[in-house]
Structure formats: structure tokens, C-alpha cells
Amino acid sequence: MKPFSFAIKARLSSFLAISTLPLLLLLRPSAALVHLRGVSFSFSFLDAPARFAVPVGDRGICGALHIADPIDACSPIGDLNRRASAEPRPQSSFVLIERGVCSFEEKVRNAQKSGFGAVIVYDDQEKSRLYSMIGDPAGIHIHAVFVSKMAGETLKRFAQGEEGECCIGSSMDETAGTVLVISFVSLVVIVSVLAAFLFARNCLLLRQAAQRRPSSMNREAVEVFPCLTFSTSFLNSKCTAETCAICLEDYKDGERLRVLPCHHEFHSACVDSWLTKWGTFCPVCKHDMSSGE
Q1: Model confidence, pTM
Q2: Which residues lie below 8 Å from residue 64, measured CB to CB, with a gap of 6+?
Q3: Domains of the chain, with CATH numbers?
Q4: TM spans, by residue (predicted)?
């Protein structure tokens, strides 16, 4: 039993480690909020952070939002609102870029070369889900997120290039909901694995118990038990019952009954067949005849 338990526990530990690894990876923040505010408006949109850019911290970042020129940022980005002086653009400047024509990585690198501190790429098509932008992280030291087409067009329409008007931060509600769902899935997986382990263990115990105990008795051992010839006069003395518990037929005068060690009697033919074919215990009290007691 010990080798079996050890093997099952080892497999259980390995399975839990493998099955929970992707769940732990999912616990990493995978969505945030882009928030645009002004004098008479305020908008919030879900975004998908780029996997190759610098993650946005829990405290979030805020800055002025500019529209890329060209809008796809597949070539060096200019800024019509940028002053002619050579002073660098502050790291709190964000740039809005449309998806398409070139890769996400190229867009982000062009924005970084132009001095922007964060990139917001919006979809060029109406889709029900957000893309997870991928690329080579080498040399990338700015933030980048992806938003829907609707969000991008809204940002483009109301962006004013004013300091602090646009913020990118964590969505606490969504993060909490994600953690709750993942926790529930993890609990279901663990409970299922434990249930499977207990079921397999119980099956093994029952199989081992069945192998240790004989399933029937040989005829020679059964014939050792004494017999008597039934008479109606026995009902008030030796016999405690007037019906065979196996065939449910009343005893008749002259029938041969076999008496088991537990003092229960049955038709000889009925109990002999029972003990040699079905089990080693008394059909009434379940006393095991093979124990020798």
C-alpha cells in the first residue's frame, strides 16, 4: 500500500505543479484602463499591455496625448504641435497610433526615438477582442498598450495634448474578477484531482480485500456443517424460523436443513449453493464461515 500511496502522491504533486503553472502566469496583470479626461468629458477604455514593452505599474502613468504623424507611425514620427526648439519631449507625452502597415514593434520603436514615454495603439478594424502585442523587448524602455477601434477614434477626437489629460493604469475591478475566476478554476482542478486520488485508493483497498478473502467455499468445507430433518414440532424448540431466508419458502416436514455455526438454518440445497457460488458469509447475519469461528 505504501508504494502505491507514494506513487499517487508523487503524480498528484507533479500534476498540480503543471496544472497551476499556467494559472500562476495568468495572475499577472493582463489588462488595464486608458482614461481620458477634460473639462467637459471623461472616458475610460480597456487596454491590453504590450508584452515587449515596459509594464505600467500599479500607480499608473499620466501625460499629454498626441496624435502620431503619420498616424500609422511606420516612419519617423513628427509632431505638428512640437515647438521648433531642440529641447526633448517630456517622458509624460503619449502618442496615439493606428494599427496596420508595419509591426507593433516598429511603431513603438519609432515613438521611442521621437521621445514619447508611452504608446497607445488602436485597432483599425472593429473586433470583439484586444490583441496582445508581441515583439523584441531589447532596447524598449517605454510603455505600450493596445485599445479598440472605438476607443482609438474617441481618443483621437478629444486629444488636446494637455499635460495629465490621459492616464494608463491598472483596472482593480477587472484584476479582482480575474483573480476570482482563476481561484475558482484552481479550486475545481484541485478538488477533482483529490477526488480521483481517493477513488483510486478506495478501489485498490477493495480489490486487495477481495483478493485476501476467498469468494466462496469448497463443497467439502460446507458439508462439515451439521444437517437436520425439519419437523413442525421443531418450531417451538430447535428452529427459530419457519422460512428459508434464501428462497423465502416455508419449511415442510421431512425437508433437509443445514445449520451454520451462527445457528441460522436454511434449506440444505439453498445454503450449499450460496456458500459454494456466491459468498462465505451467512445470508442473515453476515457471519463469515471461512473465519473458522
Answers
A1: 0.48
A2: 92, 93, 94, 160, 161, 162, 163, 164, 165, 166
A3: 32-81+88-170 (3.50.30.30), 219-291 (3.30.40.10)
A4: 176-200
